[in-house]
Amino acid sequence: MPRNIITPSIQYIHNLYAQPDELLVSISSELEKRNIAIQVGAEEGRMLQILIALHGAKKIVEIGTLAGYSTIWMARALPEDGHIYTINKDPEHVKMAEGFFILSECSKKITQLTGDAHKILPDLVEKAPFDMVFIDADKISYPAYLDWAENNIRKGGLIIADNTLLAGMVAEDRPPDGIPPARWKGMRLFNERLADKNKYNATIIPTKEGLSVAIKMF
Fold first, then answer.
1. What is the distance between the alpha carbons of residues 88 and 82, in angstroms, rounded to a whole number?
2. Alpha-carbon torsion (171, 172, 177, 182), positive or negative
3. 137-182 pLDDT, tens per residue?
4. What b/e string do you get for 149-175 counting C-beta neighbours within 10 Å, with b at 16 or more?
5. Strand 110-114, strand 153-162: pairing
6. Chain centroid offset of residue 21 CA
7. Do 92 and 66 touch, CB atoms closer than 8 A?
């Protein structure tokens, strides 16, 4: 099911717990105009806020900003001394996100870093350890992003990743038609690594796209 399709059940959740405000609605509208429907839903944004609050996270890295929709949800859940570093590769998306960040009340809690995450993440090592990483970028690189998280998220910290069910295709025994084999293999490897109970306390929440949530145990 496309992420921009809101079922009655999802709308019920939005109305009760995750009603987007004017700024968040404007971000969604802008993405729809650009025919981009890959950001998290409001119900997932609210779930991220709950996880941040439950875990007491203060310092977060987000890999994959897009227009800043999930960034703002998370930044709003941070305490006054909290901060989120979000990595955005596409110059047009960087400009779009920055415009929305300026309009938000939590802009001082957000630092947008421009460029390829593989090149930017090493520069963030000096600010480690972090309390949480949210991965929502190129799917082939999820195992590489997990490598970084293993070294730079504190023990007991959160590793959260979106799209980990690949719209259900990750459950197939072999790469299905229409999906690059490297993407399928990479996501399978990522999920299998998080299933290691010696390293993580983890699960996949069966949202539309699958949201992996793991506590780092080492």
1. 20
2. positive
3. 999 999 999 999 999 999 999 999 999 999 899 999 999 998 899 9
4. beebbeeebbbbbbbbbbeeebeeeeb
5. unpaired
6. 20
7. no
Q: How far apart are CA 113 and CA 134, in angstroms?
A: 15
Tokens 């539309």 correspond to 208
Q: What is the mean pLDDT of residues 24-43?
A: 92
Q: How far is CA 158 from the centre of its chain?
A: 12
Domain 44-216, classified CATH 3.40.50.150, yes or no: yes
Q: Which bin fits 163, alpha (ψ -120 to 50), beta or left (φ > 0)? A: left
Domain ranges of the chain: 44-216
Supply 109's token pair: 């809690």
Helix (H) or strand (E) holding 70: helix 69-77
Query: What is the Cα–Cα distance from 84 to 88, expressed in whole angstroms?
Result: 13
Taking residues 51-70, what's their average pLDDT? 98
Q: Tokens 């717990």 appear where?
A: 17
